[in-house]
Amino acid sequence: MILTERSFSLTFLVLVFISVIISFQYEMLSDFSVVGAGFIPRIVTGTMFLLAIVYVWKVYNGAYKENEETKPSRLIRYKQLAFLLALLICLPLIEVFGMIVTLGLFLFTSLRYIEGNNLIRSVTFSAAISVGVFLLFETWLDARLPIGIFETL
Question: What's the rounded Cα separation, in Å, for the pair 120 and 126?
Answer without folding.
Answer: 10
